[in-house]
Design goal:
single chain, 225 residues, alpha+beta, Fumarylacetoacetate hydrolase, domain 2, eight-stranded mixed beta sheet, 17 strands, 40% strand, DUF2848, catalytic activity, Fumarylacetoacetase_C_sf
Length: 225
């Protein structure tokens, strides 16, 4: 088990991660998702057999870090929210900002493989889902890379946390220690995603509060082999 620690309204909550899942092709409009799948197929990314998708990845890839080492220059993040089941009660389900750092070279060989090749970076602060559930679609999701805005939208563009909680129940994974990342929103293709830093903000316009994750991307030395 790999513990994460969250500041939840001034209280520290520790969560040993048992199960880590990455949602994919998880837009609210599945017609838009189908168009996106077709675009990716033209780039060589294998099409899924169904949407939305759910990719299990190693629990140790759930991290709260300011530094992500990578093996080459073609890796990038994705603005997402993360659902964290911290305990057995409804109020123990948490929501925070997250960034799924993905190996884009490996992605053309298999999306699941690419998810396993990089970490899921989560914020250190979180909200209780019950406290924002009534306005979930108005929450904002924003990503900046190297100081430039590359993603901006609302959670109304993605399948909801409640949808994924129901899916987790069907899979018998709605238990303490499960972490699920939401899938992402469209990127501005005019901005270079292969930057040396990523920041994701999850904002609540009703309160002005923002939870964030931010890290530098550091390319490791070439292998000696």
């Amino acid at each position: 088990m790999f513990p994460l620690r969250f500041d939840v309204a001034g209280t520290s909550v520790e969560v040993p991660v048992r199960t880590l899942l990455n949602a994919g092709y998880a837009g609210r409009s599945q017609d838009d998702v189908a168009a996106h799948v077709a675009e990716l197929a033209e780039l060589g990314v294998p099409a899924p057999t169904r949407t939305p998708c759910l990719y299990p990845v190693a629990p140790y890839l759930a991290m709260q870090t300011a530094d992500v080492p990578v093996q080459h220059a073609r890796t990038s993040g994705e603005a997402e929210w993360a659902l964290i089941i911290a305990g057995p009660r409804e109020e123990d389900v948490l929501l925070t900002a997250a960034c799924d750092h993905t190996d884009r070279e490996l992605e053309v060989h298999g999306v699941a493989w690419s998810k396993q090749a990089g970490p899921d970076v989560l914020g250190s602060r979180a909200w209780r889902l019950v406290e924002v559930a009534d306005r979930i679609d108005s929450l904002t999701l924003t990503a900046d890379v190297g100081g430039r805005r590359i993603q901006h939208g609302t959670l109304g563009e993605l399948l909801t946390p409640v949808y994924w909680l129901e899916e987790l129940r069907k899979l018998e994974l709605a238990e303490p220690g499960t972490v699920l990342l939401s899938g992402t929103i469209p990127m501005d293709t005019s901005v270079d995603q292969f930057a040396d830093s990523w920041r994701v903000d999850l904002g609540d316009p009703a309160t002005g509060d923002v939870v964030s994750c931010e890290y530098a991307v550091r390319q490791m030395p070439a292998p000696i082999a």
